[in-house]
Request: fold
Amino acid sequence: MNDAYKKYKDQSVQSASREKILLMLFEAAIKFTKKAIQACENKDISERGYNIGRAFDIVNELNSSLNHKISPDLGKNLEQLYMFIAEQLVQARERDVGAQAGRHARVDLQPGPGGDHVDLL
Reply:
């Protein structure tokens, strides 16, 4: 990544609203999950583990940023969702590439019609 682009990215994150940062985190988690799936299909264990780890870190960050005081029910539901996703990522990291064929955990990261579904291998 060239220096100008890196500076632009850093500046866009630093000046972003809380909502924009959350959206960026969701998008990054989806991106790393998709990369992990691709790496699994390519039997690239190292790349799979790296991308699962990145997605896991983001999900944990999202979980730790929850404010249960604003909406206790929503906070509880999101926490349960994030914990489920984190558990699926841990299981995906631990599975052997050969044992993964045919076994998928489907997680709806964008609920509703037309939402993005991500298969965690």
